Design the sequence.
């Protein structure tokens, strides 16, 4: 199973170590956000891994939305409840919500289909920085603090027209926007889901860029170059 190396489970409680989370981010998503490094004091499990585990547990519905309600730390016990309800709440061992899912429509439990969506979404999602966010920040004249970068996954949703894919699934960026507030910005990354050349679904991912300050290329570019060098070395 694709996800087997990235979590452990005992007595219906699921745990993800910092090393498992970091490896998933880098290997499956090519995501080198420092917040997923095990030694980072603000470490959190990547939302893409929680999303993937949810699909593995509950299948893919025609319409799904995912809202990340609290950060998940290393080795935090997680409960993915057995349920047939349209609202699913993933909680930690203290009963606090960490991920809320709303689903509608038919459900596809085919392992190959689920794995394909996990892989393709992960590859798309991992492009957050610098590929997708840099042009938006530059356009709006803002950036995060390179000394304490904080880009957080807030939510995502998608709708599929069909489960009957005849060709290779692909996700491609359709549009992107940035809504700037005094101390943070909300980035919306809209994507299309393709079956070959045909669009068969749509979705959107929301990111929060915290610690906003005026855009300064001289300050930001060394961080970008170091980021890219670390990614290329991996």
Sequence:
């Amino acid at each position: 199973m694709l996800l087997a190396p990235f979590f452990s489970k005992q007595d219906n409680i699921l745990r993800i170590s910092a090393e498992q989370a970091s490896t998933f981010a880098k290997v499956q998503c090519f995501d080198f956000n420092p917040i997923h490094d095990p030694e980072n004091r603000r470490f959190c499990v990547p939302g893409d891994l929680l999303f993937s585990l949810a699909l593995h547990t509950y299948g893919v519905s025609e319409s799904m939305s995912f809202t990340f309600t609290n950060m998940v730390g290393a080795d935090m016990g997680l409960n993915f409840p057995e349920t047939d309800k349209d609202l699913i709440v993933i909680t930690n061992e203290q009963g606090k919500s960490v991920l809320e899912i709303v689903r509608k429509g038919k459900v596809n439990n085919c392992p190959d289909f689920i794995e394909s969506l996990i892989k393709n979404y992960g590859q798309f999602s991992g492009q957050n920085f610098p590929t997708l966010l840099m042009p938006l920040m530059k356009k709006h004249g803002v950036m995060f603090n390179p000394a304490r970068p904080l880009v957080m996954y807030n939510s995502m949703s998608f709708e599929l027209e069909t489960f009957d894919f005849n060709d290779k699934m692909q996700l491609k960026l359709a549009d992107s926007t940035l809504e700037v507030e005094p101390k943070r910005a909300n980035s919306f990354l809209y994507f299309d889901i393709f079956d070959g050349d045909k669009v068969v679904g749509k979705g959107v991912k929301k990111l929060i860029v915290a610690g906003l300050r005026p855009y300064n290329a001289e300050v930001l570019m060394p961080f970008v170059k170091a980021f890219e060098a670390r990614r290329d070395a991996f």
About this structure: The mean pLDDT is 95. The longest helix spans residues 217-233. The chain has one domain: 4-233. DSSP finds five helices and twelve strands in the chain.
